[in-house]
Structure formats: C-alpha cells, structure tokens
C-alpha cells in the first residue's frame, strides 16, 4: 500500500502544470522555422539515401545500352 501511495505521489508531482507565459511572434515564428528546417533536413536525407543509388543504376543501364 505504501508503494502505491508513493507512486501516485510521484505521478501527481511530475504532471506538468499550465505555463503562464507569453510566446511572442518572433519566438513563435522561430520555432516554426526550426520545425520546418528539421523536417526538411530529414526528408532531404531520406531522398539522398534513396536517390543516389537509383541514379547510379540508371547511369549504369544507359552506359550498357549505348
């Protein structure tokens, strides 16, 4: 029973409370820009990993066809 009380106390104290803060337009746009940049870099990494082997394969096939 003590363990259950302790766990419920830890969970209750670790729950986040509402922040009483103001995020201005500069910080908001900066955060959005960082999110877009992160997503864009991940997508470019995936495309580069997939694209370059395909590009080499196409060049190899074209070289044999000529």
Secondary-structure element order, N to C = HH
* Largest beta-sheet details: none
Overall structural class, as computed from helix and strand content, comes to mainly alpha
Number of helices: 2
The number of distinct β-strands equals 0
Rg is 26 Å
Low-confidence stretches: none
How much is the average pLDDT? 88
User: Helical residue percent?
Assistant: over 70%
Alpha carbon gap, first and last residue: 80 Å
Strand content: under 5%
- Overall body shape: elongated
Signal peptide: 1-21
Keywords: Membrane, Signal, Transmembrane, Transmembrane helix
Transmembrane segments: 31-54
Organism: Sphingomonas leidyi
Quick structural overview:
The chain has 66 residues and is an all-alpha fold. It has helices spanning 2-14, 25-65. The protein contains two helices and no strands.
Walk me through this protein's architecture.
It is a single chain. This protein has helices spanning 2-14, 25-65. The chain is mainly α. The mean pLDDT is 88. The protein has a domain at 24-66. The protein contains 2 helices and no strands. The chain crosses the membrane at residues 31-54. This is CTP synthetase. Residues 1-21 form the signal peptide. Keywords: Membrane, Signal, Transmembrane, Transmembrane helix.
């Amino acid at each position: 029973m003590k363990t259950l009380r302790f766990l419920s106390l830890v969970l209750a104290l670790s729950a986040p409370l509402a922040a009483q803060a103001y995020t201005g337009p500069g910080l908001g746009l900066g955060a959005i820009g960082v999110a877009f940049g992160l997503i864009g870099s991940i997508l470019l990494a995936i495309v580069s990993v997939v694209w370059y082997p395909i590009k080499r394969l196409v060049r190899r096939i074209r070289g044999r066809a000529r």
